[in-house]
Amino acid sequence: MGEMVSANKVAHAYLLTGPRGSGKTSTARVLARVVNCEHNQKKLGEPCNECSACKSILAGSAMDVIEIDAASNRGIDDIRELKEKIRLAPAHLPKKVYIIDEVHMLTSEAFNALLKTLEEPPSHSLFILCTTELHKVPETIVSRCSRIQFTKATPEEMQRSFKRVIEGEGAEAESEALAYLAKAVDGSFRDGVKILDQVLSNSKKLTLSDLTQAISGSATYKIDDLVSALAKKDINVALAELNEATKNGMDLTYLLVNLMRALRDKLLDGSIEMGATKLIFTLDEVARRQATSLDGELLIQVAIVEWCGNDENNSQITNSQILKSSEKVEEKQSNVSSWAAMKEKIRSGEKIGKSDIIDEARAIFS
Fold this sequence. Notes:
Layout lengths: L1 H6 L5 E5 L6 H13 L15 H8 L5 E5 L6 H11 L9 E6 L6 H12 L5 E7 L7 H4 L3 E4 L5 H14 L3 E2 L1 H10 L4 H12 L4 E2 L1 H9 L7 H9 L2 H13 L4 H17 L7 H14 L6 H13 L6 H4 L2 H28 L5 H12 L1
Parallel strand pairs: 1-4, 1-5, 2-3, 3-4, 6-7
C-alpha cells in the first residue's frame, strides 16, 4: 500500500491475502479512507481521520463504502445486485469502495459474474477482495487484481502492537504478559485485541495470571509437566497432569493446541523422538472432535495411552477394566486359534495329545 501512495496511483481492484487475524479487512478500510480522504484529492497520502469522509468511514456510516461478507452472500443473485448498483455514481465520496471479505466462499457462478465486473469496472469504483485461502480463488479473478500478501507477524511485532493498544487505553502491562499473549494468539492481531479488551475491562494492568485465566481458563496450571511426561512416555504422570488440568478448569481445546505446539518445539530441538509426529496428528484429530464429543477428556486420555504404551509396571493402566475386557477378547481369539489348530491336526491324522484336549475345552467354554 505504501507503493500505491508513493506512486499516487490506485488500481481498480486489490486482492489482500494472508493468515487469519493479520489485518486484511482493517487494511481494506484504511485503503478506503486513503482514496476518499478530502486531503488526498491532489496526491495520495495517509488518511487524516479528521475530515467528514474519514470520519464517516471510521464510524461505518459511509454509504459509498460497502462491506460484503461472502460467507453469507455467496450466490450469483448477490453479485448481480452488486453489478446493478456499482454503475450508480457515489452518493458523497469520490470513490465507491466494495470490500468483499472471505471472497473464496463465493460460488462458481458468483465468481463468473464478479469477473465481468472486474473486467469493465466504472472509474469511480474500487474493489478490495480479502481471503485467507488464495488457492480457492479462480486464477481469472487473481489475474485482474493487484495482490497484496500479508504474512504472519513475529512475536516482537505482536508485542509492539499490543503495547500501543494498551497505552492507548491508559493501562500498563507486565513484560511477561505481553510475551505470553504474543505467543498465545499465534500471529492473530484480532484475537489478541479481543483478549486485551476482555482483560482490561476489569483491570488497568495486564498481569500474566489474569491473561492466563482469560486465555486458558486456568490461572495456575502450566503445561510443561505434561509435555515432559509425554516426552518420557511416563503414562502415570501424563494422565495425572491431564487430570490436574481439567480440575483447574483449563479449556481442553486450548490445552490441545498448546500441547501440539510444545511437542513441535521438542521435535525441532531433538528432545523427543520423531515418532511424536504421530501423537501430534492424533491430538489434532482429537481437537477437531472436541465440539461434538460427549467426553473430550476421554479422547485425550486414549491418545496419551496409545502414545505411552501399555507397560506392565503402569498399574494405572493394567488395572483398567477396559484393558481387562480387551485381554479377554484376545484370550478368546487365542483359544479359537487353538481350536482351529486342533481341527487341522484331526484332518491330517496327527495324534491328539492331552494339551489339545485342554485347548478344545477352553475354546468350547470361552
